[in-house]
Write a structure and sequence with these properties.
Blueprint: E1 10-13, E2 19-22, E3 37-41, H1 44-58, E4 66-70, H2 73-78, H3 82-94, E5 96-99, H4 107-112, H5 122-130, E6 133-138, E7 156-160, E8 169-173, E9 177-184, E10 190-198, E11 202-206, H6 211-228, E12 231-236, H7 244-267, E13 271-275, H8 276-285, E14 290-294, H9 296-310, E15 316-321, E16 327-331, H10 337-344, H11 354-371, H12 374-392, E17 395-396, H13 398-401, E18 410-411, H14 414-429
Parallel strand pairs: 3-4, 3-5, 5-16, 7-14, 12-13, 12-14, 17-18
Antiparallel strand pairs: 1-2, 6-7, 6-15, 8-11, 9-10, 15-16
Helix pairs in contact: 1-10, 1-14, 3-5, 6-7, 11-12, 12-14
């Protein structure tokens, strides 16, 4: 239970039985946690915001219980990326994780961080271990109107969280020769298919998916649709990819027909499949209020498009939901590299932290739900309300101030925005 006092000061005793001096206002008993969250720290500007959020919006109110993993690129390099695997396995153990944005290195990062090798996307590694589906939805707030004028309701992106380009194998071809796709069965049967007869240098890539993962993806989408009372749209390119994408189409249709058709009819919901380019065109003309199921790469790209069109890349939630009951919450955007370099030079930044805050609230709410900790879940609700109320009062970061319909907004820097949310939160908690 949270309580406030207005005495000059109070002497209290903390968990280590040491006296603590509590000053005049906002004195409260911290909310307790029984089961840890898996906390995955990240990179660059989002790492800076991560600490601000913990210091100002979480630790003053919650006796925060986390199992910490540093997924910053430097530490991933030091551990040969074992820390990423350990974090995913810990998520299996505790059920709920919250993750900061991380760098997926390219050639430039190899030199910048003196990397041993070009590590794969940590998100891809985690998703491969946990399986499940990533659901992304824009954070809608008054005063921030969608760029697409007919979008009236949030569009939830369901991103398949396994395989494709995120689990690929690539090769640079430096001289003429044949690249073939070769399959050798356990009993020795061999199948071969020509990828390309290279007459000059080029590049080749192999990628895969698992039928069981596609089935899990389909069931997750249909179950989430029933839970949230939303239609499901799904698009692929089966006219071109007559085996790979066609398998996605077939699995979705089979599972829908055999397991969900009657349930959808009873709920007044629909499932709609079309080619991905047609789906994109339809989305732009729709009102929203549906789940858009996407293959891994499509979901990565389209979630950024949808979030930006609804206001900002920093205004989209993301949660990986595993069929085994694991949940991993994160912001849908990257590490905000440009702001980080400015920060390192001593310049002021106005970086939107909303999605990162909502990653924490999503994880805390789920932790509270699973543990029967109503106080923790309620705190998450109030922190989200405080965040949106702060924006609606006209206090916001620069990216939102440039597009808001609120007159004369107050543009705050990165820390100032978080402090403004804390002020609103304190008011809500009284």
């Amino acid at each position: 239970m949270i309580f406030f006092a207005t005495m000059e000061q109070i002497v209290a005793v903390n968990s280590d039985s040491k006296p603590v001096i509590c000053r005049e206002e906002n004195i409260m008993t911290k909310i307790q946690m029984t089961t840890p969250l898996v906390e995955m720290d990240g990179d660059e500007m989002t790492r800076i915001l991560w600490k601000m959020i913990k210091d100002e919006l979480l630790l003053p109110y919650i006796d925060l219980n986390t199992e910490y993993y540093d997924l910053g690129l430097a530490h991933r390099n030091d551990t040969d990326d074992q820390v990423t695997i350990d974090a995913a396995e810990a998520t299996k153990k505790y059920g709920v994780a919250v993750k900061c944005a991380t760098i997926t290195p390219n050639h430039a990062r190899m030199d910048e961080y003196d990397l041993k090798k070009m590590y794969k996307s940590p998100n891809g590694t985690i998703r491969a271990i946990l399986d499940g589906t990533v659901f992304r939805a824009p954070i809608v707030v008054k005063g921030i109107e969608p760029c697409v004028r007919n979008w009236k309701k949030p569009i939830t992106l369901a991103r398949h969280a396994y395989g494709d380009i995120y689990k690929n194998t690539e090769m640079y071809i430096d001289k003429p020769g044949k690249v073939e796709l070769v399959y050798t069965s356990e009993d020795g049967e061999e199948k071969r298919a020509l990828v390309q007869d290279f007459k000059a240098p080029g590049v080749a890539m192999g990628m895969h998916n698992m039928e069981a993962s596609i089935e899990s993806f389909a069931r997750s989408c249909f179950n989430y649709a029933l839970d949230t009372k939303q239609d499901v749209w799904f698009g692929a390119k089966d006219t071109i990819s007559k085996t790979y994408d066609a398998k996605f189409k077939q699995v979705f249709q089979t599972i829908f027909d055999e397991e969900f058709k009657e349930k959808f009819e009873e709920a007044g919901l629909t499932y709609f499949y079309s080619l991905i380019d047609d789906i994109v065109a339809r989305v732009m003309k729709a009102e929203g209020g549906f789940i858009w199921a996407c293959k891994n790469y499509d979901g990565d790209v389209m979630s950024d498009m949808v979030s930006s069109a609804f206001g900002s890349l920093a205004m989209m939630t993301s949660v990986l939901v595993s069929p085994n009951g694991y949940y991993e919450y994160e912001a849908a955007h990257g590490t905000v590299q440009r702001h980080y370099y400015r920060h390192l030079e001593g310049g002021e930044t106005s970086t939107n932290s909303v999605a990162t805050i909502f990653a924490w609230t999503g994880a805390l709410r789920k932790r509270g739900e699973l543990d029967g900790n109503a106080e923790l879940a309620q705190f998450a609700d109030k922190l989200e309300k405080a965040t949106l109320t702060t924006i609606e009062s006209g206090k916001m970061t620069k990216d939102l101030a440039l597009i808001t319909t609120i007159e004369n907004p107050t543009v705050l820097n990165s820390e100032g925005f978080i402090l403004a949310i804390r002020e609103t939160l304190d008011t809500l908690l009284k």
